[in-house]
Amino acid sequence: MDPAWILAYVFLGAVTGLVAGLFGIGGGGIMVPALTLLFIGQGFDAQHLVHLALGTSLAAIVPTAFAGVRTHHQHNAILWPVVARLVPGVLAGTFAATFLAAHLSPLFLAVFFSVFMFLIAAQMLLNRTPPASSHLPGAVGLSFVGTIIGAISALVAIGGGTMTVPFLTWCKVRLPAAIATSAAVGLPIALTGALGFALNGAGQAGLPPHSIGYVYWPAVLGMAAASWFTAPVGARLTHRLPVPLLKRFFAALLVLLSLQMMWTVLTT
C-alpha cells in the first residue's frame, strides 16, 4: 500500500480524535464521509463504499471509546446500573442493524446518514437540550431505548452519544453523569457494530485486501493510533477555546461533509 494512504488515515484519525475530545461526540460524522472519499481514491468497488466506511468507522471508534470509559470510571461518574439495563437492547439493536445495513443500498445508507447528521447539526446550532421532565424507565423500557439507540448508531457509525445524552438528561440525570454513562454505552455499540459489519461483509466479492468483511484494517489502525493521542488534547482544549463558536463551524462542516457524501454516492 502507498504510504500516502496510511498518512491520510492517520491524519483523519487525528482530526476525529480531536473533535471527539473537544465536543464530546464520536467522530463518525467526519470519518464516514471522509473514508468514502478515500476509498474512492484507492479504487475500491463502488457497491461497498458506504458499508466499508460504516464498518471501518465503528471499528476505529473502539480504542477511544475504551479510553473514555476508563477515564469516566476512574472519576466514578458512570451509572453502571443504567448501563447494565441499556446494554442488552444496545447489543441487540446494533447487531441487528448491521444485518439490515448489509441489505440496504449505498444510496439509502448515504441519505439516512446525511439526514441524521443534519439533525445533529441543527441540535448543535440551536444548542437545545430536552427539559428534565421524566424519570428513568424500568429495565424493559431502558432495554427498548437501548435497542433504538443501538440500531440508529450502527446505521450511521456513531457511538450513540448524540441520542443517549439527551435521553438521560430528559430523565433527570445530571449532565456529567449522562455523558459518562453514554460513553460506557458507546463502547459496546462500537464493538458490536464493528463485529456485525465484519460478519455481514464476509465472503463479499470485490472487497479490498486487508479487510475483514466491511472493516478495512489499514484505515482502522491508522485512525485509532492517532485518535488515541488527540482525543485527550481535544478534551483539554474544551476549557481554553470558544467551544460554542467552534460548534457552529463544526455543525456547518457536518452538513457539508454529508452533502459531499451524498454527491459522491450519486455520481460514482
Give the helix level as a range of percent: over 70%
Mean pLDDT: 86
**Rg from alpha-carbon coordinates:** 17 Å
Question: What is the terminal-to-terminal distance?
Answer: 23 Å
Total strands? 2
- Beta-strand residue fraction: under 5%
Biggest β-sheet description: 2 strands, antiparallel
Strand adjacency order, main sheet = 1-2
The class by helix and strand makeup works out as: mainly alpha
Shape: globular
Number of domains: 1
Give the SSE order as H and E letters.
Answer: HHHHHHHHEEHH
Low-confidence stretches: none
**Quaternary state of the chains:** single chain
How many helix segments?
Answer: 10
Describe the structure.
The radius of gyration is 17 Å and the shape is globular. It has ten helices and two strands. It has a two-stranded antiparallel ribbon with strand order 1-2. The two termini are 23 Å apart. It is mostly helical. The model has no long low-confidence stretch (mean pLDDT 86).
Q: Summarize this, please?
A:
By secondary structure, this protein is mainly α.
List keywords for this structure.
268 residues, mainly alpha, two-stranded antiparallel sheet, 77% helix
What order do the helices and strands come in, and which of them pair?
Layout: H1 3-23, H2 28-41, H3 49-74, H4 80-102, H5 106-126, H6 139-156, H7 161-170, H8 175-201, E1 211-212, E2 215-216, H9 217-237, H10 243-267
Antiparallel strand pairs: 1-2
Helix pairs in contact: 1-2, 1-9, 2-3, 2-10, 3-8, 3-9, 4-6, 4-8, 5-10, 7-8
